[in-house]
């Protein structure tokens, strides 16, 4: 045996507060990855992150084409900020990104949520943010198990092999 | 690389315990590996294992999403067959390399 005993993660709690394509997918990939590793997983969507579980918006998430220095043209040239601001450009670029993700077998957001819950992961929405955006449980995807306060979420994050990840 | 005897068969395994050569695999080896993990194999398990082996031979990438769409099991049932490691444990028992997919 190694001198250092391994202490594998037992629980991962994730908080997603941003609503761009990459923010939502980063959360989903990490959450699903944790479930696949047998780690207990809870995800809390708040503020603009609610777009990822709102049935109206979840399948048409956008990536920012302005103010995003990592944005490149196909072929690798820098993406001019002025171009990114033109009507329809952000929608077009986002659509292209979603298509490329699909080619890598990355599922659409609704199917991703189903993958996570199929393995026992749980999805929650933030009560304060739901009230603020005037949403109800009916606006949210079926895989969302409850609308809860941050206090209730923290209560679920107990255990000394638990990590909270904010994306 | 290490040598190991599983179900009377001499096999080469990686550091993580995955078979290095998928042709050294047979159903008894599968049962031996499954027992170490704590899974008792049924016919349904073998359907999944054979599917994974076929896909690996065809050099296609494996994801739980792909298994879910194969028509053999749903993702939910895949988790029931291989608790806490739907792709990891199934790959190990199927005698194929450690999965490189994140989905």
Strand count of chain A: 5
**Poorly predicted tracts of residues of chain B:** none
Which strands sit side by side, in order, in the main sheet of chain A?
Answer: 4-3-2-1-5
Which residues of chain A sit in consecutive blocks of at least 5 with pLDDT less than 50? none
Tell me the β content of chain A. Answer: 15-25%
- Overall geometry of chain A comes to globular
Q: What is the correct CATH architecture of chain A? A: 3-Layer(aba) Sandwich
CATH hierarchy class name of chain A: Alpha Beta
Provide the gyration radius of chain B in Å: 13 Å
Rough outline of chain B: globular
How many β strands of chain B by DSSP?
Answer: 2
Cα-to-Cα separation, first versus last residue of chain A: 36 Å
Which assembly state applies to the chains in this document? heterodimer
Outline of this structure?
The complex is a heterodimer of chains A (167) and B (103). With 167 residues, chain A is α/β, with parallel strands linked by helices.
In words, what does this structure look like?
The complex is a heterodimer of chains A (167) and B (103). By secondary structure, chain A is of the alpha/beta class. Chain A has a single domain, classed as DsrEFH-like (Hypothetical Protein Ychn, Chain: A, 3-Layer(aba) Sandwich), CATH 3.40.1260.10. A five-stranded parallel sheet of chain A has the order 4-3-2-1-5. In chain A, helix 1 links the parallel strand 1 and strand 2. The longest helix of chain A has 16 residues. The mean pLDDT of chain A is 95. A two-stranded antiparallel sheet of chain B has the order 1-2. Chain B starts with a strand and ends in a 9-residue tail after the last helix. The model of chain B has no long low-confidence stretch (mean pLDDT 94). Chain B contains five helices and two strands, in the order ββααααα. In chain B, 45% of the residues lie in helices and 10% in strands. The longest helix of chain B has 15 residues. Chain B is mainly α and 103 residues long. Chain B has one domain. In chain B, strand 1 and strand 2 form a beta hairpin. The relative contact order of chain B is 0.19. Chain B is globular and about 35 Å long. The interface between A and B is medium-sized, with 15 and 20 residues.
